[in-house]
Design goal:
The structure holds two protein chains of two kinds. By secondary structure, chain A is mainly alpha-helical. Chain A has helices at residues 3-38, 57-62, 66-97, 102-117, 120-130, 137-144, 161-173, 175-187, 190-199, 203-214, 216-231, 235-240, 252-262, 266-293. Chain B contains ten helices and 21 strands. Chain B has a six-stranded mixed β-sheet, sandwiched between helices. Chain B has a five-stranded antiparallel β-sheet with strand order 2-3-1-5-6, with helices on one face. In chain B, helix 3 crosses helix 4 and helix 3 (119-129) packs parallel to helix 5 (163-175). The two termini of chain B are 33 Å apart. The interface between A and B is medium-sized, with 19 and 25 residues. Bound molecules: adenosine-5'-diphosphate (ADP) and magnesium ion. Residues 69-70, 186 of chain B line the site of magnesium ion.
C-alpha cells in the first residue's frame, strides 16, 4: 500500500471513530480525571468560597469515618456473598437447563431474565411490599406456618436488613449469568465431549475437565461483572432503606451519593469513589490472574 | 484386540419437533442425492447392517457422504443409541454400555483435541482417567509420540500445530491406550492431497505396530482399497457389498459398487446378453464377445436368460485395436505411462486407458478408434435390479 493510500485510510478510520470518541472523552474520560482531581480539594457546591487544595486530607479522613468503614464492610459482605453465590447458582441452573428442548429452555431463560429486564424500581417496590412489616407475604407465610410467632420488620431490623438487600440483589443478578452460561455451555464443541467419553470420562469428569475449562472466559466475565455490580449496589438501598437502620445497609456507593449530593462534599465523595475504583480494579485483576493460571 | 459383531443393526434418527418440515425442505434441494428411507419415527440412517469383524481385522466402511458410515461407527463407539439389532464386542452384548466402558478409541474427523491441554496432556488424558501410574503414563505417551514423530511438540497446545500434526496427535491419543477396537472417522479428509498420501502410508505402518481391530470410515475409495482387509460399501443406509479389495474390484455386486470402486470409473454400455446353450455372449455396437468360462458357469447356475443388460468394463481392461466397438475420440489425456482416451461409443462417454508403449501414432479429436475387451473383465448387470447377474 502506498503511503498516500495508507494515510487516507487512517484518516477515514479515525473519522468513523470520532463520534464515539468524542462521547467517550467527554462523558467518561474527563469526568474520571475530574473525579480524581477534585478528590484532592475540599470541593463543595458553594460558589463563593474557592475550593482549597488539601492534599490527601480527604483520603485520611475516610479511614477515620465510621460510616465509610461500615459502608465498606457492608459492601465487602455483599460482594463476598453475592459473587460466589451468583456464579455457582447460575452455573448450576444453566447446566440443568441448557440441554432442554427449545420451548422449555426459553421458559427458564425468561423466568430468570425477567427481573433483569423489569425496571429495577418496579422490582424493588414489589420487594418492599413483600418485606412489609404488616402486609408482607414473608411475614404472612412464616406466621401462618408457625415458623415465626411475631411479625418481623425485615428492612427495619439491623440484623436482617442487609440480607434482605442481598436477596433482592441475587434475584436480579443471576439472570444474565444464566443466559451467558447457557450459551457458553451449548457452544462447547460436542465432539470434545464425545472424545472425552470415549477416552473414559464420567459425566462429572467431562464437566470439570472439558466443559469447565472451555467456559472459563465466560466465568471470568461473569465474575467481573458481578463483582462490579455488587460493589456498586445503590438503587436498592436508595429505594428501600437509605442506608438504615443505623447504617446497617450503608454501602460505599450509597455513602458517596449521600456525601456528594446531600452534604455537597464533592471532594470527599470523589475520594471514596477513587477508593472504590481501586478496590474493584484489584479484585478484577486478581480474578483475571487466577483464571489465566488455570 | 477384539472381535466386533454387528447383527442386523438399525438406526433411526427420530424427528425433533419441527424438524420434519426442515428435512423435507432439504430434500427439495436438487444437489442432494441421498435417498434414505423416511418413516413415521424418523430418518432411517442405517438398516440391516450385519457384519462379523475378526480380531485384528482392518475394516473400512466406504460410501458417498450421508450413507450412514459415521452413524454406524458412532453406534460401535456408543455415542449413538442403537435403535434395533445387537452389537457385540468380544462376544459381549454392549448395546447399553456407555462409551467409557467399551474400551474403544476413536479418531474424530475434526480431531477433537482438547484445546486447553498440551499435546502431552491430550495423550495422557485417557490414562490419567484410568489412574495409570505417572511413570507408566509418561512411558506410553513418549512411546506413542516417538512412533508418530511428534515428540518435539509434546508441550505445545493444539492451536500451535498444523493440520497434519494435529492429526498425528489425534491418532497418538487413540493408540496410547492400546484399545480393543480403534475407530477412525474420515481421519484424513481434512488434509491436503500430499499429506493425505503420506498419512495413509503411516496408518498402514501403524497398523502393523499396534495390531488391533480397526474400523475405518472414509468416502475415498482409494483409501478404502489401500487400507482395508475387507471393505464394506454402503449406500442410502444399506450395505451394498462386503469383501476384500480384490473381490469388490473384480466382482462388484451391483452397478453402484462397480461405479464407486476403481479410478477412473468403470465404463457402462447398453448391451445385450445372449445365451446359446451353456455359452453366454455380450453384444455391444456390433461387437460380440464370449464371457469367460467361470462367468458362464455362474450365470448358468442362476439360469440367467438372454436379456438387455448394462455392461461394465473398466478403462484399464479395454484394448484399442482394429475390430471391436467403434468410438469417436473427444480428448486424449497424456498421463505419462499411459494415455486416457475420452471417447464416445454407443451414446456413452467412455474412457480407455492405452499404455504409452502400445501407442501407434497420436490421437486427435474426431478420430475413430475401435476397442474390445476380454470375456474375463466384462461385468453384466441387470437393467431391472442393477444387480450383477453372476451373484
Ligand atoms: N443427529 C442426526 N439427526 C438426524 N439425522 C442425522 C443425524 N446425524 C446424521 N443424520 C442423517 O443420517 C444420515 C447418515 O449420516 P452419516 O452417518 O453422518 O453419514 P456419512 O458419515 O456416511 O456421511 C445422513 O443423511 C444424515 O442427514
Ligand atoms: Mg461421516
Amino acid at each position: 500500500m502506498s503511503p498516500e493510500l495508507r494515510r487516507r485510510e487512517t484518516v477515514a478510520g479515525y473519522l468513523f471513530l470520532l463520534p464515539s470518541l468524542i462521547f467517550f472523552v467527554g462523558f467518561v474520560v474527563i469526568p474520571m480525571v475530574m473525579c480524581v482531581v477534585t478528590s484532592f480539594f475540599d470541593a463543595t457546591m458553594d460558589l463563593n468560597t474557592p475550593d482549597k487544595f488539601i492534599w490527601f486530607d480527604n483520603y485520611i479522613e475516610l479511614w477515620q469515618d465510621p460510616v465509610f468503614l461500615k459502608g465498606l464492610t457492608n459492601t465487602l459482605i455483599i460482594v463476598l456473598v453475592s459473587v460466589p453465590f451468583t456464579c455457582i447458582f447460575s452455573l448450576w441452573v444453566a447446566s440443568a437447563i441448557y440441554k432442554m428442548r427449545e420451548g422449555l429452555l426459553s421458559f427458564f431463560r425468561i423466568v430468570f431474565y425477567l427481573p433483569v429486564v423489569t425496571g429495577s424500581v418496579a422490582v424493588t417496590v414489589v420487594w418492599k411490599w413483600m418485606y412489609n412489616n404488616y402486609y408482607g407475604i414473608f411475614n404472612y407465610v412464616l406466621k401462618n406456618t408457625g415458623i415465626i410467632s411475631k411479625n418481623i420488620n425485615w428492612l427495619g431490623n439491623p440484623q436482617y436488613a442487609l440480607w434482605c438487600i442481598i436477596l433482592i440483589l441475587l434475584t436480579t443478578s443471576v439472570g444474565q449469568p444464566i443466559v451467558l452460561y447457557v450459551s457458553a455451555l451449548s457452544n462447547v464443541d460436542n465432539s470434545l465431549v464425545e472424545a472425552a467419553e470415549v477416552d473414559g470420562a464420567t459425566n462429572t469428569q467431562v464437566f470439570w475437565r472439558i466443559k469447565w475449562p472451555q467456559i472459563m472466559p465466560t466465568t471470568l466475565y461473569i465474575l467481573i461483572i458481578t463483582t462490579i455490580n455488587s460493589f456498586q449496589c445503590f438503587a436498592l438501598i436508595q429505594l428501600l432503606t437509605s442506608g438504615g437502620p443505623n447504617y446497617a445497609t450503608e454501602t460505599v456507593m450509597y455513602y458517596i451519593y449521600y456525601t456528594a449530593f446531600k452534604l455537597y462534599r464533592f471532594g470527599y465523595g470523589n475520594a471514596m469513589g477513587v477508593i472504590l475504583a481501586i478496590f474493584i480494579g484489584i479484585l478484577s485483576a486478581v480474578q483475571f490472574r487466577l483464571a489465566r493460571e488455570k | 484386540m477384539a472381535t466386533v459383531q454387528l447383527k442386523n443393526i438399525k438406526k433411526v434418527y427420530p424427528y425433533i419437533s419441527g424438524e420434519q418440515k426442515k428435512s423435507k425442505k432439504k430434500d427439495d434441494q436438487p444437489q442432494k442425492k441421498i435417498n434414505l428411507q423416511i418413516t413415521d419415527e424418523g430418518v432411517v440412517a442405517v438398516q440391516q447392517f450385519s457384519l462379523d469383524i475378526a480380531d485384528k481385522e482392518f475394516i473400512v466402511l466406504v460410501g458417498p457422504s450421508g450413507c450412514g458410515k459415521s452413524t454406524t461407527l458412532r453406534m460401535v463407539a456408543g455415542l449413538e443409541e442403537i435403535t434395533d439389532g445387537e452389537l457385540l464386542i468380544d462376544g459381549k452384548l454392549v448395546n447399553d454400555i456407555p462409551p467409557k466402558d467399551r474400551d474403544i478409541a476413536m479418531v474424530f474427523q475434526n480431531y477433537a483435541l482438547y484445546p486447553h491441554m498440551t499435546v502431552y496432556e491430550n495423550m495422557a488424558f485417557s490414562l490419567k482417567l484410568r489412574h495409570v501410574p505417572k511413570a507408566e503414563i509418561d512411558k506410553k505417551v513418549r512411546e506413542a509420540a516417538e512412533i508418530l514423530d511428534i515428540t518435539q511438540y509434546l508441550n505445545r497446545k493444539p492451536k500451535a500445530l498444523s493440520g497434519g500434526q494435529r492429526q498425528r496427535v489425534a491418532i497418538g491419543r487413540a493408540i496410547v491406550r492400546a484399545p480393543k477396537v480403534m475407530l477412525m472417522d474420515e481421519p484424513l479428509s481434512n488434509l491436503d492431497a500430499k499429506l493425505r498420501n503420506e498419512m495413509r502410508a503411516e496408518i498402514i505402518k501403524l497398523r502393523k505396530r499396534i495390531d488391533t481391530t480397526f474400523i475405518y470410515v472414509t468416502h475415498d475409495q482409494t483409501e478404502a482399497m489401500t487400507l482395508g482387509d475387507r471393505i464394506v460399501i454402503m449406500k442410502d443406509g444399506y450395505i451394498q457389498q462386503i469383501g476384500t479389495p480384490q473381490e469388490v474390484f473384480n466382482h462388484p455386486a451391483n452397478l453402484f459398487v462397480a461405479g464407486f470402486i476403481g479410478m477412473p470409473v468403470m465404463n457402462f454400455f447398453d448391451a445385450k446378453l445372449v445365451r446359446e446353450g451353456s455359452k453366454y455372449f455380450v453384444e455391444v455396437g456390433g461387437y460380440r464377445q464370449e464371457l469367460s468360462p467361470d462367468k458362464e458357469e455362474r450365470l448358468l447356475n442362476h439360469d440367467v436368460q438372454s436379456q438387455e443388460i448394462t455392461l461394465g468394463v473398466r478403462p484399464e481392461h479395454t484394448d484399442v485395436n482394429d475390430e471391436g466397438v467403434a468410438a469417436r475420440v473427444d480428448v486424449a489425456e497424456m498421463m505419462g505411462s499411459s494415455v486416457h482416451l475420452h471417447v464416445n461409443a454407443e451414446g456413452h462417454d467412455v474412457i480407455i486407458i492405452v499404455p504409452t508403449v502400445d501407442m501407434k501414432g497420436n490421437y486427435e479429436m474426431g478420430d475413430t478408434v475401435h476397442f474390445s475387451f476380454d470375456g474375463k473383465v466384462a461385468h453384466v448387470f441387470s437393467k431391472e435390479t442393477e444387480k450383477n447377474l453372476e451373484f
